[in-house]
Every structure is written in C-alpha cells, then in structure tokens.
Amino acid sequence: MINDMKKILVSEEEIKDTVARLGKELTADYKGKDPLVICVLKGAIFFMTDVVRAMDCNVELDFMDVSSYGNGFESTGEVKIERDLDTNVKGRHVLIVEDIVDTGRTLRHLVELLKHRGAESVKVCTLLDKPSGRVVDMEADYVGVVVPNEFLVGYGLDFKQFYRNMPCVGVIKEEFYE
Ligand code: PRP
Ligand code: MN
Ligand code: MG
Questions:
Q1: CATH code for position 99
Q2: Is the pTM of this model over 0.90?
C-alpha cells in the first residue's frame, strides 16, 4: 500500500497531533452540550473514531453514508444519501465529521439538510481541507490540515474504494491509476 505512494502528505504523527489539537478545541466548545456527532461514511470513519476519543465530553454518535465521487477522481456533483441517520436531530447540537472538504458539495448538502430538519446548531470538523477545489461556498468550522490540489488517499480516503486503511495520507504514483 505505502509502496504505491509517490509521496506522503500527512504522516501518522501529524494526524495524531492534529486529532489531539482538534479534540481540545471541540472539548472546550461542546462540553455540556451533549452533541450528536455524525460520521460521514465511508471516508470519515477513522478520523471520527479518533477525534471523538480526543473529546472529553458526552457525545452521541450516528452515521450517514453519502457519496458523490463513486469510483472516479472527479465529483459527480450529485450528492447521494445511501444511508440516513437513526437519530432525530431536532433541537440537537450537531457536529459533522468529514475526512476532506473538496468542492464543498457534500457538506453544503448535509448542513442544509440538517438545519432544515431543525438542528439547534450544525458545525463541521474536517481532517483535510482542499480550498483550491471549492465549487460552492462552504467552510468547515474546525480544520485539521490544509492540503494542495492533489488526489489523496489513506486514513479513510479511497481510490476505487482501496487505500482507506493506510494509516497516513498520500498521493498515489501515476502508474497505479490505470
Ligand atoms: C469524498 C470525501 C468527502 C467528499 C468531499 O467522499 O470523503 O465526503 O468526497 O468532496 P466534496 O467536497 O467535493 O463533496 P466520497 O463521495 O468519495 O464517498 P466516500 O466517503 O464513501 O469515499
Ligand atoms: Mn466521503
Ligand atoms: Mg470516495
């Protein structure tokens, strides 16, 4: 897996430090609010499990499976909800956890949906932010690492569903794209 990488962009160490920093910020902001933390499947799975364990407050967890990339490099522009929440968000402080914000379409869609459903507050925490990819106006409230405009894999991010279980984030060598 790691041998398929042209370079490592975010190391395990940097992920660990980033998670710890975000965990502290989130703890300070969410203590006493019993937030509902939403993991956006599948990409956010590892980041969510790590970041909630860095939060020293009561949280409830739920999952939403959303996809817009399918197996390609480019966002289809259509955000599909493959699995919805179990929890009623009405009156809740909701924290959406994402692996990456690229065009911003996935998040914009989710934030609007959850506000429409009556959430008391909706905030977003993302491990990676790719501002150069933005197509819609959408910024996360908590950002881990700002990344350049490259196709990234690892720590949840996939290429054709693979590489998600790599413990760091990297760029694949061109020869593996075929
Ligand atoms: C990826 C990524 C984010 C979203 C970001 O998910 O995990 O959820 O795209 O892109 P955007 O800002 O352009 O919307 P994907 O659709 O690939 O589904 P996955 O998480 O199951 O891989
Ligand atoms: Mn995703
Ligand atoms: Mg994907």
A1: 3.40.50.2020
A2: yes
Q: How far is the CA of 101 from the centre of ligand 2 (A)?
A: 9
Domain that holds residue 45: 10-67+75-147
- Would residue 101 count as lying in a domain? yes
* Total of domains in the chain: 1
Ligand 1 centroid to residue 32 C-alpha, Å: 31
Report in angstroms the alpha-carbon separations of 46 from 53, 121, 163. 11, 24, 12
Q: How far apart are CA 26 and CA 51, in angstroms?
A: 9
Tens-digit pLDDT profile for residues 3-37? 999 999 999 999 999 999 999 999 999 999 999 99
| For ligand 1, atom 7: residue with the closest CA | 43
Q: What is the value of ipTM here, to two decimals?
A: 0.97
